[in-house]
């Protein structure tokens, strides 16, 4: 799913005011990977190549020198890894500071949304990395029906929250 949709989903789904922390955690699984990939290209003095098709893009990522991006992506899109990262912080906020740190849930929400909206040909989400290679061959988010449907859903949830539950 695109970064914009992930940011908006974090804001409309999580209780409380809109915050930078919600957006940051909501895009973290992608940003960590692609910021590193872009930085590496920049250090080498190269631009990230533009890709005409998704297949060409994936072929580029499957090259030996770029494969680390695919591997890192598996880890930043793992519910196992995120549970290990956020559980201690969650418990600290909950038991020591007596607040529910909703923003932490933005990362697992990102992954749950990516699982059915990626397919085997384009960054499939192996959400149980490193324990399992299980993945779902979903409907890619860039397909018009999914892409538009996704934003329609975001707006619907936003209105529901604003006018029905008023929170
Ligand atoms: Zn993602």
Structure description:
It is a single chain. This protein has 167 residues and is mainly α. The chain has one domain. Helices cover 61% and strands 0% of the residues. It has seven helices and no strands. Helix 1 runs parallel beside helix 7 and helix 2 packs across helix 6. The longest helix is centred in the first third of the chain and has 24 residues. The chain starts with a helix and ends with a helix. The mean pLDDT is 94. The structure holds zinc ion (ZN). The site of zinc ion has 5 residues, from helix 2 and helix 6.
Q: Span from first to last CA?
A: 26 Å
Number of strands: 0
How many whole angstroms does the radius of gyration measure?
A: 17 Å
* Element string (H = helix, E = strand): HHHHHHH
Mean pLDDT: 94
Topology:
Elements: H1 3-13, H2 20-43, H3 54-61, H4 67-76, H5 79-96, H6 106-114, H7 144-165
Helix pairs in contact: 1-2, 1-7, 2-4, 2-6
Bound molecules: zinc ion (ZN).
Residues 29-30, 77, 110, 114 line the site of zinc ion.
Summed up:
The chain has helices at 3-13, 20-43, 54-61, 67-76, 79-96, 106-114, 144-165. It has 167 residues and is mainly alpha-helical.
């Amino acid at each position: 799913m695109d970064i914009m949709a992930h940011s908006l989903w974090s804001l409309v789904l999580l209780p409380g005011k809109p915050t930078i922390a919600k957006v940051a955690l909501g895009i973290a699984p992608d940003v960590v990977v692609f910021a590193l990939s872009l930085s590496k290209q920049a250090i080498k003095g190269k631009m990230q190549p533009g890709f005409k098709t998704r297949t060409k893009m994936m072929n580029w990522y499957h090259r030996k020198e770029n494969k680390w991006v695919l591997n890192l992506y598996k880890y930043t899109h793992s519910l196992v890894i995120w549970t290990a990262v956020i559980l201690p912080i969650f418990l600290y906020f909950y038991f020591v500071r007596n607040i529910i740190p909703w923003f932490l849930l933005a990362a697992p929400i990102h992954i749950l949304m990516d699982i059915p909206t990626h397919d085997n040909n384009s960054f499939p989400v192996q959400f149980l990395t490193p324990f399992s290679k299980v993945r779902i061959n979903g409907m890619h988010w860039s397909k018009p029906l999914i892409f538009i449907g996704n934003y329609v859903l975001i707006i619907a949830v936003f209105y529901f929250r604003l006018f029905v539950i008023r929170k």
